[in-house]
Each structure stands twice: as structure tokens, then as C-alpha cells.
Amino acid sequence: MTTPDESVHARLDRLRRDRGLLTPAELLDLAEYGVTVLDPFSVIVSRQVKLGPDNVLHPGVVIECDEQSHCALGPGNVLYGGTRIGAADGGSITIGARSLIGDGGTRILAGAHESITIGDEVRLMDGAEVLGDSLLGHGSQILGRISARSVELGAGLPYTHPDPDARGGVLKGLGRLSGVLVGTGDALFNIGHDLSHTVPGRQRAYHPEAPRLGPGPTLERLAAEHAGGVLAFERENRYFFAASAPDRGDEYFTPDGFAERHRALLAEQADGHCHFHVVLNSYGRIIGRVNLVDVADGSAELGYRVAEADAGQGVGRAAVEQVLRLAAGAYGLSSLTAACSPENEASRALLARTGFTGTGRRRMDDGGTVMTYRRAL
Asked: Which of 16, 310, 342, 350 shows a CA-CA span of 20 to 30 A to 73?
């Protein structure tokens, strides 16, 4: 209740304290900790919020967090007017360092037991909205009036980096999406009502003349933590691969269907029947797969595939040569076989360059034929 002798500032302070918010004077006092609040009368910040040094809060920023929830911002972020960050009923929001949030309006909202984690040097602008359980990796971006719920954007370097293959995942356009995974160096760009079924493309497609700054690819043995990256790789290149090999079917590309298949592969590998590998570029993005299957009597069959955007650049040859060394050394094999369609000239050339020789043809279950190869180790 307002008393006759209560000043406007005292009334404002009381109203804010009653709602668990910092008063204008307390917002100004944050300068002692390196936080700049440009207009303490229009900025709303809950007492529960943890602000790192060197954050800048423009007029109209709102950061609300109830007592059951968690909200923390690392150092050096810039929050523009129109930014609204809210965690309620046990929700959690964690934002890293040096991000640019809210130019043109941005909402980041975590409800009951939801968790949103945003990495370093992220850009969210032009009406972006982040909801649900979401993970936005370092250097990722959401640009435009996109409402993204429970999404994962691959970590990378910020948008200022000259090599687009190194940048964090990007969502750009207008619409709604849910449960989407966009890998490092990828962009999901569209304008429409629902982007959830749109396949991400490479950022390099929008910057074809950009330099390639990373060293050659590396090989890693398939592990549980590769699941998200492999699914993104297979989704992005589905139709490219289907031009030379049977398609895996819609169920494979669903989160549940893929997870079941990934677990099965790891079980086969643990039993010693197969050796599966992913090919990563210098930024940790999966750009290929090289596998040795049907291990028996000192031999195995080689299979490989390389992302469309990275084909024709020596990635496949470098990866196969690494697998050959592993096969002869760590895996103790004495020979490898391989097969490819007669029309796949690139694959035939790669096998020839890596020491495979033709052994004939083999009829497949679908009635087609493949050319067969062998290499002693």
C-alpha cells in the first residue's frame, strides 16, 4: 500500500523487492563487478540471476528467474533491448561468454525441469526464440523469427571465422522447429511454418570462395558419443548416398531408429565382428565413415562414404589409408576385400590408388552386380 510520504523511487524499489527483483540502484551497483546496465529503470533482473563481469545490458532487457530455478551468464555478453530470459519452476538457463543476444528481439525460456545451455560467442537475433531442453554450442547462431524447441546446434568457431566449415551450426529464416540437430559448419535455412523436416546444408554452399584452413582429416573408432554427429552426417547426405547405394529407409533417420541402430553397431564392434570409424575434419565435424565388417579368418570387407561437400578432395583416400594401417597393425588382419557398383568411377579409382586389385563381379540380392576387389596387407 502506498503511503502519502513515499517517493516514486521508494515505491519502485518496494515493488521490485516484493517480486524478487534488483532495484535500479542495485543494478547500477553491478558496475562494481564490471556489469554495465545502461538504463536501470527499464532493465529487470531477478536476484537469483548470476551475472559474470563485462556483461552489457541495454534498455528493456528482462532476466527473470524464480527461487526454484537457475540462471547464469558468463562474462562479456551483450544483451540488446527486447531480450527476455526466463527460467521458472525448476528450469535452468546457462549462457557462456561473449555472446550477442537480442538485437531485434530474442526470448530464451526454460519451464519446469527444462535446461537450456548456450555456449560462447553465440548470436541470437531478429526475433529468435529458444525453448525446452536445448543445447546451442559455441559459435552457433539463430537468425530470424525462428521458434526453436529442444534443438541442438553443433559447436564451432564464431561467425567471424573465415572458414565456414569451422563455424557453429546455424538456424536462419522464419518458422517453428523441434528436435532438430544442426552440425558444425551446417545451416538450416528456410522460410515457412515448420522447419523440423528441412535437411540442413553446408554453410560453405553460401560461401563457396571461402578458404579451407584446417589440416587433413583424422580417424576415430566409433563410440557412443559420435551418435549425434553420425546422424547429422547421414541425414545431410541421404540423397547423395542413395544415388550409389541402397537407401537406409525413413526409420533409420528418426532419433529412436538411429539410436537403436547405433547401439547395435557398438555391440558388433565390442564382439570383434566389425571395426567402425568416423572421419573428422580439423573442427571435429564428421565428414565420412570407414568401416571394416565381417571380420573372420584374418580378413574383413572395407566400406566407406564421404560427405557430398567434401567429396573429390582426397578425404576418402586419406581415411582409407589410415584404416589400412590400423587393419595391418592394431586389428591384426592380413587382407581386405571391397565392392562397388560398376558406375561408381570415383570409388573404383580410390580402390586402385590404395592398392586394391579387381577380382571379378558379384551378384547382389536385388539382382544387380558389383565389382569386387582385394588387397593383401
From this structure: 16
